[in-house]
TrEMBL record:
Organism per entry: Quillaja saponaria
The protein's name: Serinc-domain containing serine and sphingolipid biosynthesis protein
GO cellular component: membrane
Coiled-coil segments: none
Membrane topology type: Multi-pass membrane protein
Transmembrane stretches, start-end: 51-71, 92-113, 133-150, 162-184, 199-220, 232-252, 258-277, 298-320, 340-361, 382-400
Family of this protein: Belongs to the TDE1 family.
Intracellular or extracellular location(s): Membrane
Principal location class: membrane
Record keywords: Membrane, Transmembrane, Transmembrane helix
Length: 425
C-alpha cells in the first residue's frame, strides 16, 4: 500500500458519527437571517400597535365627551334601557361618562390580563397584542356596550374606585416625568470622557428658569388682581418658595446636582400651579378667565381639545416607560425580546381610562360639568395643587436621598472603639 493510500486510510478511521459536529438549525446562516427578519417584522408590528391603542384611547375620550354633552339629544334610543332610568338620565352626563370610562377600563384591563408576563416576540401573546384587530374590535364594542346595562349603583361604585385609580395614574405619571428629567439632565451634563461642552446645558437651564420666573409673574398678574384673592396668592407664593428651595438644594455642596434638572422641574411645577388655578370655578374677583363658562367659543374649544390630546399623550408616554418602574436591572436585551412591557402598557391605559373619567366629571360624582369644559371645580383644583406639592417633595427627596444614604453608610463603617483587654493585669 502506498503512502498516500495509508494516509487516506488513517484519516478515514477517525471519521465516525461521534466525531461529526452537528450544527443547530438556529446557527445555520440562512435560517438565522430568516429568524432575525421575522423578529424585525414582529418588533415593527409591536411598535405600531402602540399607536393603534392610543387612537382607540383617543376615541374613548371623544366618546365620553359626546355622551356627556350631546348624546341625550342625538341618541334617544338609550331612553328605553331599563338601567338608564327615567328618560335615560343615568346614561348621560356624569354617569354616562363613567359608563364610557368603565368600558374603556374593561377593554384595556382584559388586554392587561392576556398580555401579562409576555417576554419574547415568538410567543402567542405577542401576536395577540400586535395583531388580531378584528377580534379586538369586537372585544372593544362589547366592553363599551356592557356598562350601559349595569345598574346605576354599580356605576357609582366604579366612580369611587376610579378616583383611586386616577390618583395612582397621577403618581405613576409623576415618576415617569421625574425619570425623564433625570435622563435629560444626564444627557446635557458635561462628560469628561466625551469632553462634552457644558454651554448647551447652561443655556437650557437658563431658559427653563427664565420661563419659570416669567410664569410666576404672569400668574400673579392674571389671577391675583386684588389682595382679597388670598387662595391664589397662597398657591403662587408657595410655588415660588418651592422653586427657591429646589435651587438651594441643587447647588448645595453635598448635593451638587446642577441647575438643569431643577430648572426643568421648576417649569413643571409652575405649569401644575397654572393648571390648578385654571381648574377653579369662575370667580368675578380672581379667576375671570376660567373655562367653566362653556360658551363654546374658539378659545374654550381649543383648550378643550388640547387637554384631550394631553391626556392621550401623557398616558402613552407613561405606558411605554416601564423602565422607570423597574427595581432591578434586567439582563442585556436580546433580539427576540419584546420592545416594551405589554402588561404595564395596558395597565397604564386602564388607569388612564379612570383618569379621563374623573377629568370629564371634575372628580365630582354628583355634579355635571358644563359643555366644552374639562377638569373644572374645587375638587380638581385641590387634586392638581396636591399633585404639584407631591412632585416637588419627590424631587427634593431624590436630590437629598444619596446624601442621607451616604451618611448612614459612613456611620455604620466607623470603627467601634473597644477596651484593650491586654492591658488589664
Amino acid at each position: 500500500m502506498s503512502a498516500p493510500a495509508e494516509s487516506v486510510e488513517a484519516r478515514s478511521v477517525h471519521i465516525t458519527p461521534n466525531n461529526i459536529e452537528v450544527v443547530p438549525r438556529e446557527n445555520v446562516p440562512g435560517l438565522l437571517e430568516l429568524k432575525n427578519f421575522d423578529y424585525l417584522v414582529e418588533r415593527r408590528n409591536s411598535l405600531r400597535a402602540r399607536y393603534s391603542f392610543s387612537i382607540i384611547f383617543l376615541i374613548m375620550n371623544l366618546s365620553a365627551w359626546f355622551v356627556r354633552d350631546y348624546a341625550q339629544k342625538i341618541l334617544p334610543q338609550i331612553h328605553y334601557l331599563k338601567s338608564c332610568g327615567i328618560g335615560g338620565r343615568d346614561c348621560f352626563h356624569t354617569l354616562g361618562v363613567l359608563r364610557v370610562s368603565l368600558g374603556c377600563f374593561i377593554f384595556f384591563f382584559v388586554m392587561f390580563l392576556t398580555t401579562l408576563k409576555t417576554r419574547k416576540l415568538y410567543e402567542a401573546r405577542n401576536g395577540w397584542h400586535s395583531r388580531w384587530w378584528v377580534v379586538k374590535f369586537l372585544l372593544l364594542v362589547i366592553s363599551m356596550a356592557v356598562p350601559f346595562f349595569f345598574p346605576s349603583d354599580v356605576v357609582q361604585i366604579y366612580g369611587e374606585l376610579a378616583r383611586v385609580g386616577a390618583g395612582i395614574f397621577l403618581l405613576l405619571q409623576l415618576v415617569s416625568v421625574i425619570h425623564f428629567i433625570t435622563w435629560w439632565n444626564k444627557y446635557w451634563t458635561p462628560d469628561e470622557e466625551r469632553k462634552q461642552s457644558c454651554s448647551i446645558g447652561l443655556i437650557m437651564s437658563t431658559l427653563f428658569y427664565i420661563a419659570s420666573i416669567c410664569g410666576i409673574v404672569l400668574l400673579y398678574k392674571l389671577y391675583t388682581p386684588r389682595p382679597s384673592c388670598t387662595l391664589n396668592i397662597f398657591f403662587i407664593t408657595w410655588t415660588a418658595i418651592l422653586l427657591i428651595v429646589m435651587i438651594i438644594v441643587s447647588l448645595h455642596s453635598k448635593v451638587n446636582r446642577g441647575l438643569l434638572s431643577s430648572g426643568i422641574m421648576a417649569s413643571y411645577i409652575v405649569f401644575l400651579c397654572w393648571c390648578a388655578i385654571r381648574s377653579e370655578p369662575i370667580m368675578k374677583k380672581c379667576n375671570t378667565k376660567s373655562q367653566e363658562q362653556g360658551n363654546g367659543d374658539w378659545a374654550n374649544i381649543l383648550s378643550f381639545l388640547i387637554a384631550i390630546f394631553a391626556i392621550v399623550l401623557a398616558t402613552f408616554s407613561t405606558g411605554i416607560d416601564s423602565k422607570s418602574f423597574q427595581f432591578r436591572k434586567d439582563k442585556a436585551p436580546q433580539e427576540d425580546d419584546i420592545p416594551y412591557k405589554y402588561g404595564f402598557f395596558h395597565l397604564i391605559f386602564s388607569l388612564g381610562a379612570m383618569y379621563f373619567g374623573m377629568l370629564f366629571i371634575s372628580w365630582n360624582l354628583s355634579n355635571s360639568a358644563k359643555k366644552w369644559s374639562i377638569d373644572i371645580g374645587w375638587a380638581s383644583t385641590w387634586v392638581r395643587i396636591v399633585n404639584e406639592w407631591f412632585a416637588a417633595t419627590i424631587y427634593l427627596w431624590m436630590l437629598i436621598s444619596p446624601v442621607v444614604r451616604q451618611t448612614r453608610v459612613m456611620d455604620h463603617d466607623e470603627p467601634v472603639q473597644g477596651t484593650d483587654h491586654s492591658a488589664i493585669p
